[in-house]
Structure formats: structure tokens, C-alpha cells
Amino acid sequence: MTAEAVETRSEALAPTRALRTISLLVNDKPGVLVRVALVFARRGYNIESLVVSPSAYGGFSRMTITCSGALDILEQIIKQLAKLVDVVHAIDHTGDESYETEVALVKLAAALDERTQILEVAQHYKAKVVDYGADSLILRVHGESDKLDSFISLLRRFHIEELVRSGKVLMARGETTT
Amino acid sequence: MSERTPTGGEKIIQCLEREGVEYVFGLSGGAAMPIFDALVDSPVKLILVRHEQGGTHMADGYARATGKPGVVLVTSGPGATNTVTGLLTAQMDSVPIVVITGQTVSGNLGLDAFQEADVTGITYPVVKHSYLVRNADDIPRIMREAFHIATTGRPGPVLIDVPKDVSQGPCSADFVDEVDLPGYRVPTHADEASLSAAAECLTRARRPILYVGHGAVISDAGKAIITLAEKLRAPIVNTLLGKGAADENHPLHLGMLGMHGTAYANKAVAGCDVIMAIGARWDDRITGKLDAFCVQAKKIHVDVDEAEFNKVIRPDVALLGDARLVIEDLIPLVEMADTAAWLKKCSEWRRRYPLKYPKQGGLRAQHILDRLQHVTGGDAVVTTDVGQHQMWAAQFLRSKSNRHWLSSGGAGTMGYGFPSAIGASFGRPDQPVWAVVGDGGFQMTLSELATAQIHRRRVKCLIINNNFLGMVRQWQQMFFENRLSGVDLEGNPDFAKLAQAYGVKAFRIKRSADVNRILAQAHEYDEGPCVVVAEVVKEDNVFPMIPAGASLDEMLIERPKEKLDKPVGST
Q1: How far, in Å, are B250, B253, B340, B374, B483 from residue B351 at the CA level?
Q2: B114 in catalytic set
């Protein structure tokens, strides 16, 4: 790849992509995840994160999907998701007054002389040290995805060995259906 | 009979009986043997096909001709993968078929067992819904759900994959009548606000047009559409698949629109001020260049599938519901529109740009199809394959009534025409069925000559033989400087002799003077299937034509003198 091409590509990726969050109530059956994923894949739509978990009702699961791409395509995708026999409903919660959160685990190679600085950052973000090893630390932080992003970017100056994020989960407030 | 618990396979067949299934189009194989075994003692008749693709098209033809679901039964692995083209065809054109596939035993799933294929995985994108049966006791529920899903709302194919241990083991579950599908909704009537908005829009129109698609055929909306058109005094056009929903001979009907539609239909669409799509989906064959399509016109969209709204066109009014119910609800709300000048304009276009073809220079497909219309009186069920003959048939055969015109529109599946005619003939045994096919497509599924012959179907297969893949050749001539590539079907067999080898009666049309006589003979022939082989001029082109991606205004009424740019639209 030429230098110019690299630059163009990083520019294209640089602006923060507008993320959309969709919540689905689906039948708890094999293959449902594939059917849902295919609707996105067919339109070349990128799934940023996807969380599948049991719902409050037996036989149904909850999916929370964060994705990015053109809005008019997303409108179509949501309708096509809703059309799937196994999908009870699909709702775009972007911009809603909903409660959302995410968990991140960060493993840092932490030499003794860096630990104080790392723990300062952790304290500021109310991150908890869940593993305190001789050569490494694991921090757990939760909160809105933006908060996790900035926490992780502050830790970039240290040596991040591993990073795991749960993906965003969300619940509509009050009477609104998630 | 003893109270022996039925096997899963027996339960499947009993469920088919309860669903009122008359025929199963099938090809046997190891993993499906318990299901085939259960057919031996069942009133459901097995039609043994020669290739699974043919089987799916037969079920599709049966379904389109009758409105009842077509059923396919095949084995695992390659048997199942051979149904994929038929599934796509049915999915694209919203045809209710239920495809039951054998599968290796449950314990072997995912182990690359003999004739194992991940069939549900392979078919996800081409089915309305599918099942992998893990427990024989789920069979009654799954079968009921499958038929319900296939036939309601926007119909489509449903696949049921049945491991052999499931079909062989006992099934003690009772039959199921009610379905419980919380994620599945079937719209019926449109909401009142949208109905009155549509009525106001139509009543105010001065140049309205009703654009009728397959949804109108499926919901049997034809009578209501004619009533609405007469009340509004609005012209009607239909899509390739909408043919027959409303009688194409009606004075307000302008025939087919789109890429190879009539010039007057396309001129009317280009000039309208309100266009109402009724069970049609603004396909790229219809709209051409989207930015230039009906820019000034208000758009009303009637569809049973909400995902069609805003997919291609953002309608001014969207009416979610069954086409017939929506139009029936709309009729009392509209008032007669002042369209006299508009209808006069449409009549002028009709007079000025009639469908035509050269009367000299050898035998032509258009001439044969024009005469076929006369011979059948427009009453026969007609199926087509895909290509030039399909477009000529769509132009020259005017469909009078619902479910008389069967053609693969969305998928454009070559090989569809002949087997779908056989399937249609099982569904409509009282009527002759004409399959209009090209020499290319016919050779993809011609082995079903045996199926047609064994069952003495009154299928008349008209082979328009130009020894070319003619539509592609036309494009190469028009847009690729006549650099022919992969279109010459040199090596075609003598189709009449080929038919005779299957014991099928064959007729030949060699000259224009033979056309009436041979078509009449073939039409009257009632001892079984026959083929009519017509050797037509090799290099003929379909007009009118709107090049892919061009606007309706760029329609070519006849062959242009100058060289054309390569089309920007898809195929």
C-alpha cells in the first residue's frame, strides 16, 4: 500500500462514526443469530458490537446491536430484522432516553514504577483492580461506551496487553419498550 | 389398525394430508427414505422428478397456478443443494412452497458425514423461514407453522431439514391446529388515515396510473383494481409478474411496463402525476434510472410487506395491507377524477406506438406468440423460461385472468419454464398448459420430459430455437460492438428427436405459413405432453427496450442506428 493510500484510509476511518444501537427481542432458537447477522452482512453493514442474553421471558432472548452506516440502509435493515419470523421486535434506540452501559476488562503490563500512575487513572474512572499480579494488572471499568473509550485511550500510554469489552447493553426508561 | 406410534416420517406425511396436499414433487435418497416410505400408504401422490431443481419449479408452478402451496421432498446433501435455485426463484417471486429435505442422522451433524450438507445454513438467504428438526415430537408444530408461514402475508418458501433418526424414530405428539408465532404478523386492512390520504391523492390526480404487480395476483385483487380504475378512469399497467391480475384486454389496460414493456405503458408512466403501486416493488426493471423515475408524480404504495416501503422509492402514501382488501376499502373513498385529457393522450400513444415486428425475413418468435394468443383464445395457462422469448411472450400474450401467467421474474431463472408448466398442469388438470421456452433454458431442465410423459400431462412446450442465448447476444450486439462471447449454442440437439426419445409427441414449425396449423394441432393434442420446435431467425431483438439504468424517456422503440454506450444499470 502506498503512503498516500494509507493516509486516505486512515482519514476515512478517523471521524467518529455515528453509532446506532438496536435492541431486539428474539426467539431463543438455534440459527437466530445467523439470520440476524445475515441481514446486516447482505447490506455490507458493520456490526460494532453484539450482546445476546436471556430475556425476562422464557424462550426469548435479547440482542443489543451497535452498528454504523448510512441511516436509510439502517431503516431498511430494521424492517428486514422485524420481518424475520424469529424476531418479535427490533427497535432503534439511538438518541432515546435510555440507560446504557458496557463493561471493559483491560490487562496492563505494569512495572512497579508505572503502577501509581495507572491506579490514579483507574481511580478517576472508578475502575476496579480485579487482578493484581507481579507483572500485570487487570482493571474492570463500566459505564457508557464513550467513558470506556476515553479510559482506554488514557491507558494507551502504558502497555495494554489485552482488552475485552462486553459490548453495549441498553434499556429504555419508564414505560418505553426496549 | 394397531395403535402403533407413527414414525417421524409418517407423521410428516400425515401432516401433509391434513394440509390438503395432493402432490409431492420429489426425488428420493438415503437420508429421506423413512419419509418416502411413508408415502407408499398415503393418498398424497408422489411425482418422481428427474432433478431436484425441476421438482422445486414444479412445486412453484403448481403453487402459482392454484394459489395452494407446492411441496418438494428430496434427500440430503446434493439433493438438498439442488433445490437452492428453486428456493431463490420462489423467494424472489413470493411463491408458497414447502421444501422437505432429508438430513444425515443427528449425531453426524457437522461431522462431514456422507451426503451431509449444512442445508439450513446454505439456504438462510433464500427462504422465508426454515427449520432443522431436532426432535420428532416437534414435527406437527413445525409442519403447521411451515404451511402457515409459506402461504400467509407475503408468501414464500419454507424449508424443513429432517435428520434421518428424527424421521425414523417415533413421533407421539398430537397434530397442531393453531400456530403461536409472536414474531410473525400478517397485515390485512390498511389504517384509515393512509386510506383517506391515498383517496384524496387519487381523486385530485389528473394523470393517475395504477401499477399492478404480483401482490395483486397473489391476493386476487384484479376485480377490485378494475373497479377502482373504472371509477377513477385511470389507466392500468402491470409488471411481468402482475400479468393477468387485471384483464390485459380491458380498454383501460396499457399492458406491461418496464424494460421491455409496451411503449405506451412506459410513456404513460413517465407522464403520470400519481402512480399507485399495488403489490409491486419498484424493481430496477421497472424504474430504470431511479433519479429520473416519475420525478413529478406522487407515489402511493400498497404492499403487505412493510420492508418494501422506502426500499427503492419513498412513497407519499404507504398502505400496509393485503392488496385486495386495501383496494376494496379505497373504492368507496375515491371520487371520479377528471382524466379525460389523460386517457386521450394514452390512446394516442397506444395508436402511435403499437407493438410490432417485421413481417418479412423468416420465421419470428413474435409472430408465433401473436398467433398462440389467437389459438388459445388467451385462456391457456402459460409459463415461460427466461430471455427474449419471455419478453416477447409477455408482450404478445395478453393475460385475461389471474394465475394464468407463470414466469420467473425476480430471479430470472433459466430452466423454470418447462417444469413449472408440468407443476401447473397437476394443479389445473382441466386446462392445457403452454410452456414457452428458449433453446438455452429448456436444456437446463429438459430431463423432466420423462416426468411429463409418465404422467401424461397436457403440457405443450413451445421451444423458440434460435441457437443462441438470444438476450445476451442482443446486448452484445447493441452495447459490446457485437463481440459475441458465450452465446452461440452450436451443438444443440434436434429437439423434436430428443422429445421423441422420451416418447413425447413432437411438432415442428419451419415456416411462417405453418404457424397457425401447427399451433392448433398442438393445442388440440390431448394424449400427453408435446413439444413444438420452432426454428426462428437467429438474430432478432426485443423492442421496445429501456437500457438498464437509463430513464424511461430513453426508451428505444426500435433498433437504433448509432452505437450505444454500455448500460450503467445492473444486467
Answers
A1: 16, 14, 17, 21, 36
A2: yes
Nearest to B310 among A26, A75, A83 (CB): A75
Helix (H), strand (E) counts: chain A: 5, 9
Report the phi/psi class of residue A36: left, alpha or beta, with left for phi > 0 and alpha for psi in -120 to 50: alpha
Residue B91 a catalytic site member? no
- The CA radius of gyration of chain A, in Å to the nearest whole number, is 19
Q: How many CB atoms lie within 10 A of CB B58?
A: 34
Please give the model's pTM, rounded to 2 decimal places: 0.95
Q: Domain A3-92 falls in which CATH fold?
A: Alpha-Beta Plaits (3.30.70)
Grid coordinates of B136 = 420428532
Q: Helices marked H in A16-174 — which ranges? A: 32-42, 71-83, 112-124, 145-155
CA distance B151 to B134: 24
In sequence order, what DSSP letters do the residues of A71-96 get, joined into one string? HHHHHHHHHHHHHSTTEEEEEE-TTS
Catalytic residue among B391, B471, B478, B555: B471
The three three-digit cell numbers of residue A114, written as one number: 508505572
Quote the CA–CA distance of B5 and B172 in Å, as a whole number. Answer: 6
Domain A99-170 listed as CATH 3.40.50.2300:
no
> Mean pLDDT across chain B, nearest whole number?
96
Residue pLDDT, tens place only, B479-490: 999 999 999 999
Give the active site residue among B114, B348, B356, B539: B114
d(Cα B365, Cα B245) in Å, to the nearest integer? 25
For residue A141, the Cα-to-chain-centroid distance in whole angstroms is 14
Q: Quick check: B246 and B265 in contact, CB under 8 A?
A: no
Measure the CA–CA gap between B272 and B207, rounded to whole angstroms.
Answer: 5
The CATH class, in words, for B8-168 is alpha beta
Is the Cβ of B149 closer than 8 Å to some Cβ of chain A?
yes
pLDDT at residue B130 is higher than 60: yes
Q: What CA–CA distance (Å, rounded) separates B269 from A30?
A: 46
Nearest to B123 by CA among B156, B92, B80, B94: B80
pLDDT for A71 equals: 86
The whole-angstrom separation of Cα B78 and Cα B126 is 17
Same fold, A3-92 and A99-170: yes
- Residue A79 and residue B307: Cβ atoms within 8 Å? yes
Neighbours of B419 (CB within 10 A): 33
In CATH, B365-543 is 3.40.50.970: yes
User: What CATH number was assigned to the domain covering residues B192-352?
Assistant: 3.40.50.1220
> What pLDDT, on the 0 to 100 scale, is given for residue B562?
77
* Mean of pLDDT values over B27-42: 98
Q: Three cell numbers at A40?
A: 446486516
Nearest CB to B183; choose among A34, A76, A87: A87
Name residues whose C-beta falls within 8 Å of residue B543's C-beta, 6 or more positions apart in sequence.
B260, B556, B557, B558, B559
Q: Enter the ipTM.
A: 0.92
Mutate one of A29, A63, A71, A83 to test the B interface: name it (highest B CB count within 10 A): A83
Residue-wise pLDDT tens digits, B391-445: 999 999 999 999 999 999 999 999 999 999 999 999 999 999 999 999 999 999 9
Cis peptide before A54 (omega within 30 of 0): no
pLDDT tens-place string over residues A126-173 = 999 999 999 999 999 999 999 999 999 999 999 999 999 999 999 999
So where are chain B's domains? 8-168, 192-352, 365-543
